[in-house]
Amino acid sequence: MDSNKDEAERCIKIAINAVNNNQRDKARKFLEKAQRLFPTNQAKSTSNKRLLIGVLAQNGKPPDENGSPVNGDGPTMRQRSHGEEPDVSARGASESAKPYTADQLEAVRKIKSCKDYYQILGVEKAASEEDLKKAYRKLALKFHPDKNHAPGATEAFKAIGNAYAVLSNTDKRKQYDQYGEERTNPTRQRQHRDFEADISPEDLFNMFFGGGFPSSNVHVYRNGRMHFAHQNRQERRGEQQRDGGLALFVQMMPILILIVVSALSQMMVTQPPYSLRYSPSAGYIQKRHTSNLKVLFYVGDRFNEEYSGKNLRNVEKSVEEDYISNLRNNCWKEKQQKEGLLYRARYFGDSELYQRAQKMETPSCSRLSEIQVILDG
User: Fold this and answer.
1) Measured distance CA(334)–CA(33) in Å, rounded
2) Spatial distance between the Cα atoms of 118 and 126, rounded to a whole number of angstroms
3) Is residue 224 a part of any domain in this protein?
4) pLDDT tens figures, 306-332
5) What is the pLDDT of residues 245-287, one digit of tens each?
6) Transmembrane ranges (predicted)?
7) Residues 70, 63: contact at Cβ < 8 Å?
8) Range of 71's domain?
9) CA angle at 222 for the pair 56 and 11, rounded to the nearest 5°
10) Domain boundary among 95, 123, 155
11) Is the dihedral of CA 219, 220, 224, 226 positive or negative?
12) What span, in angstroms and rounded, lies between the C-alpha atoms of 129 and 123?
C-alpha cells in the first residue's frame, strides 16, 4: 500500500509539471492514475488533487477526489455556472468570485482565436494611426481585467496591447507585415521576440487613459503570463537559494561585458560640444542661447575657443533640431494623455473628469506652435 502511495505522489508531481507546461492531456492521465493507485483524503494529496482538478476543469469534466467523474450536477459545474471558472497561473489555479456575462466570455474567445494583430484590433492592413488608436481605446476598455472578469480576459487584454504597440511602431509594423503571420501567433504565450511590445499592457493603458482602473491585486507581466506579485517574490527567493556562486557569475558575465564595452565606447566617442541640460559632471556649465530661436543650451569652458563662424552656426542648428525633436515627443505625449482622459470621461459619463481634461494644458505643443510661427516668418 505504501508503494502505491509513493507512486501516486510521483504521478501527481508529473501532472503538476504537465499543467505548468500546458500539457493538459498528460496531466489528466497521471492524475487519474494517481487516484486509481491511492485514493486518499490526506491533506497533501487532497490539496494537490484539488489544484489539478481546478486546472483540468477547463478541458472537460475532471475526476473527483475519489477517482469518479464529476457529473453536471456536481459542485464544479455549479461553480462554473456562476462565473467561477478556473484561471490558470504559473503555479496553480484560482477561481474568480466576480461574475461575467456570456457576451464577455464569447468576446474573449474571439480575441484568442484571432490569427494576427490586425484581426485582434479589428482593422484593415491599411489602417491609419488614428484607426489603430480608436480600435485600441474601444477594446482596451472592454477587456481590461478590472472590468471584464471572464476567464482569459487578461490574456486578451495583453494581446490587444501588444497588437497596438507593434502596429503603431513603423519599423515593427513593416517587419510584422513581412514575417509576422509566419513567425508568431499573437494570442499565444510563446511569441516571437521581434514582435513583442516594448511596453506593458497596463503602462500602455495608463498612457492612453491617464490611469487605470482601481485594483486590489498587484499584477506583474512576465514571459507572456500574469502572475501575482507575491508569487514572483517567492519564486525569486527560491531561485536565489538554489543558485550557486558559479551560476551567479555566469549570469553576471553579459552585464560585465556590456559595462566594459560601454566604457571603451565612451573613451573612443568624441564628447558632444553642448547639452540641453545643465550638467557640471560632464563639464556643461556655461549658458548660451541660439541666435535664431533663442534656445537655451550649455557648453564647456573652451567652447568659445573651439567654435566660431560656420562651426558655431552648425552647432546652434543642431541644438535647435534636438530641441524641436524633444518638443514634438513631449507634445505627442501631452495630446495622448489629454485625448485619453477625454475619451475615458465620455465613456464613463464623468463630467468632472471631462472638465479637468478640457482644462489640461499642453505646454510643449504651445511652444512648438510658437517656434513654427518664427520659422515660417
Assistant:
1) 60
2) 10
3) no
4) 999 999 999 999 999 999 999 999 999
5) 677 777 788 888 888 887 776 666 567 899 999 999 989 999 9
6) 246-269
7) yes
8) 2-95
9) 30
10) 95
11) negative
12) 11
